[in-house]
Specification:
Length: 362
């Protein structure tokens, strides 16, 4: 029996995992996350309605795209999406955090402010594939309202929207210049960083029709990268650039991450430390309040999610355990990135772990 993958075409994180599974050549069957699947499979196994979920052929349940990817990296072997060299590996890990945990902002903005009516039909088609179009639209409106309601707490409002769009269009321009020269972030093989970016850039920003038109018009090379990522022609193929090279064309993308995401995450880490000290035996919530963020000179507030700190631990732990020579090479590389001290000097007060489908204190 192949592995069973429960997801959906609309799902940002399903898009990330699916692209990886196809490149890795994993034998799996995908099942839509219908209402019945949530009720009978996902919630009983995981404890909450979340996708994607993978049930391996051995019967092990995996939830969270990073854990799904790491499981098959260990099980399947062969070429890895994790570079072996220090600069490339750190950049790949950082780009996973940027895509997974920050680009959800433009992804959700464009979905719900440019594609709302279309998305309702898509939600209904996933929830009730056998229903009529009219029934699907009604179901989709009911189901989709929950997701639309996330926009304000993600910091998406009339004040921040112009800045979100300006930042996204600038990011597209930077990535378009990069993908004009390289098939993927670090050469001719996709890295874990490509998979971090593909979730929002495919499932929301390419696949949703109005957003897709914007991407194809402003950044056709990014759209072509998306197509390479999701329509895998040669699994397990390609190489990372030689000599631990990180293209200069990625520096503006990293600088955007350092300027926008890292100061926000430091606030989240500080807030979480205060919360953890007062709640040592309490289950970790999805957010520990609202934190300031700043994009293109505009300040807003959004939820402060501890999960983003768990993701950031991956590049931080890698960076801080490098041998001296590798650390020196990485530090020299980081010195070329404006604002990189926000990462290298980051204070993670309280380590986290992800066990039994939930965050716990590490």
């Amino acid at each position: 029996m192949p592995h069973k993958f429960y997801g959906g075409p609309l799902s940002l994180y399903s898009g990330k995992a699916r692209a990886y599974l196809d490149w890795k050549g994993v034998d799996y069957e995908e099942f839509l996350s219908t209402t019945e699947v949530y009720k009978t499979i996902i919630v009983p196994k995981v404890g909450r309605p979340v996708i994607p979920v993978m049930v391996t052929e051995e019967g092990e349940t995996l939830q969270d795209t990073t854990l799904i990817i790491d499981h098959f990296e260990a099980e399947v072997g062969g070429p890895s999406v994790y570079p072996d060299t220090p600069k490339q590996r750190l950049v790949a890990l950082l780009m996973e955090v940027f895509g997974d945990e920050w680009l959800v902002i433009p992804a959700m903005h464009y979905r719900w402010n440019y594609n709302e009516e279309w998305v309702y039909g898509e939600f209904g088609a996933v929830a009730a594939p056998e229903a009529s179009k009219e029934e699907q639209l009604a179901i989709g409106r009911e189901r989709g309202q929950t997701f639309k309601g996330f926009c304000p707490v993600l910091g998406i409002n009339a004040q921040t929207i112009p800045a979100i769009e300006a930042s996204y269009e600038a990011l597209l321009a930077d990535l378009d210049r990069h993908f004009a020269r390289y098939d993927y972030l670090l050469g001719s093989r996709p890295s874990i960083g490509d998979y971090g970016l593909i979730g929002p850039l495919y499932a929301h920003l390419y696949r949703d029709p109005a957003s897709g038109e914007i991407m194809k018009r402003l950044a056709p090379k990014v759209a072509q990268w998306v197509e390479r990522m999701v329509d895998v022609r040669e699994p397990l193929s390609g190489e990372f650039l030689a000599d631990d090279e990180v293209p200069e064309s990625l520096l503006p993308v990293l600088e955007r991450m350092m300027a926008e995401q890292m100061p926000f995450l430091q606030q989240v880490a500080d807030m979480f430390a205060t919360w953890a000290e007062s709640n040592p035996d309490t289950e970790i919530p999805r957010a520990v309040g609202m934190a300031d963020f700043r994009i293109e000179g505009v300040t807003g507030q959004r939820i402060a999610p501890p999960f983003s700190l768990w993701m950031l631990q991956r590049p931080l732990d890698y960076y801080r355990t490098l041998p001296d020579a590798d650390r020196a090479a990485v530090d020299d590389f980081l010195s070329n990135i404006d604002g990189a001290a926000a990462f290298s000097d980051f204070t993670m007060h309280q380590p986290l772990a992800f066990e039994k489908f939930k965050l716990v204190l590490g």
